[in-house]
Amino acid sequence: MVFAHTLFMVYIVFMVRAAFCYSAKPDVHVVLGSANEIILGERIHAAIQYIRSTENPNILFISGGVKNALVGANEQTEAAKAANMITNNMLDNVQIVLEENATNTAENFVYLKRWVNNNFSQEDLPEFIITTSDFHKNRAEQIFQGILPDITPKWNLSKSDCVQCWRDEAIHIKNVPADIYKAMNLM
């Protein structure tokens, strides 16, 4: 009888701790937008696969505005396009946050930082998972570290067949310090 009671108490403690851990902090999955709808779709697919592989509560933060254009009647932001790729039954119990102002990677992270500062205390920061393309990771990581240096995210990379994208990164990466400087002025 004592053994059964002890076993039951261990079970109760385990269940209470599991419930507390589960509800304590969500994972924040950040999906970086892309003007290229194929690349955007690859990123959304990678984020969905990652979210389905975890049991943690999830917030899907999709970031991306419209590059070099004004949003017209027929123009959607990258974030809105990404959200439209997700059907209602793809993800259960996931809160979706759309950030529709960023026009580049540095701005994605500045707006993320603003959202984090408005929604979490420093002691209660969630786990961050950044979803972007494989070719984009090195530059995105440098920018992230320049804007959110106290956070170490996990990286979830979509695979891309875009050969030109890999070439373009060699040019874009040279602009990282200037991109960070300009984006930080939005804070």
Describe the protein in words:
Helix content is 49%, strand content 16%. It is globular, with a radius of gyration of 19 Å. Helix 4 crosses helix 5. By secondary structure, it is an alpha/beta fold. It has a single domain, classed as Rossmann fold (3-Layer(aba) Sandwich). It starts with a helix and ends with a helix. Strands 3-2-1-4-5 form a 5-stranded parallel β-sheet. It has 7 helices and 5 strands. The N terminus is likely disordered.
- State mean pLDDT (0 to 100 scale): 86
What class, by secondary structure content?
alpha/beta
- Which architecture name does CATH use? 3-Layer(aba) Sandwich
As an assembly, this protein is single chain
Number of domains: 1
In spatial order, strands of the major sheet run 3-2-1-4-5
Low-pLDDT ranges? 2-22
Write the CATH homologous superfamily. HUPs
Rg (C-alpha, Å): 19 Å
> How would the global form be characterised?
globular
CATH class: Alpha Beta
In DSSP terms, counting alpha (H) and pi (I) runs of 4 or more, how many helices?
7
Entry summary:
This protein is of the alpha/beta class and 187 residues long.
Observed structural traits:
187 residues, alpha/beta, Rossmann fold, 5 strands, disordered N terminus
Task: Give the topology.
Blueprint: H1 2-24, E1 27-32, H2 37-52, E2 58-63, H3 78-84, E3 94-99, H4 105-119, E4 127-133, H5 137-147, E5 154-158, H6 163-172, H7 176-184
Parallel strand pairs: 1-2, 1-4, 2-3, 4-5
